[in-house]
Amino acid sequence: MAHLPPKLRVLLVDDQPLFRRALATLISAQFDMTVVGEAESGRDALDKVRALHPDLVVMDVNMPGTSGVDGVTAIRGAGIATPIVMLTVSEDDDDLFSAIKAGANGYLLKNVRPEQLFEDLRGVMRGEAPIAPAVAGKLLEALRTGGIPVRGGAAAASDSILTRRESEILQLVANGLSNKEIANELTITEGTVKNHVHNALEKLHLTNRVQAAAYAVRQGFTNQDGSRG
Question: Domain segments of the chain: what residues?
C-alpha cells in the first residue's frame, strides 16, 4: 500500500473563534492539509509557531492587542522563515503594505472562494506569493511609483551584486511567474530556480518574493524583452 505524503500543517490566527473554527473545518477536510493549532493574536502566533512548528501560518491583520502585522514582525524577528499568508477583510493600503514589508508571503481577502484559498495556500508552499485581485492593483501601482521601500533601501540593494541569471529570474518573478513556470521558460530545473531566488534574496537582504518583485519593478527589470528600462 502506497504511503500518502505528509499533510500541510497549518496554524490559524484570528480573533474570531467562530470564523477560526469554520475555516479549520474547511482546511482539515482537504486531503493534503490539516490544522495543527489556533491562536487569537499576533503575540499568541509566535508562541504557537515555536511550539507547533507549522508548515504555514494563515493570519488575520486586524486583531485586538497584537495585530497580525505585529505577529509577522515578531515571527520574522525571531528568525523564523515559516510562510505566512494574511487572510483579512481589510483592503486598506497601510495594512497591505505593512504586512508585505513585515515579511508576509501573501495577502488574501476573506471573501475568497474556498477552492481558490486552498490552491493559493498550496501555491505558497511552491514559492508563490498570492495577492487578492482587489488589492493587487494597489500593490503594483505602489511598486511602479516606488511607494514601498524595500528593506535595506535601493542603495544597499544594488543590482550589481546579482549574477546575470539572478537578475533574469527576478525579472520573471516580477512578471508573476511561479518557480515551475520560470524553470520551463529558462529550460532549467525548478530546484535551480529556487536556489537562484534564495541567493538573490540573501544578497538583497529581502525576505520574500513579493519584496523581490518590488525591487525588480523599481530597478526596471520588468521589460518583456529582458532589457533594462
Answer: 8-142, 152-218
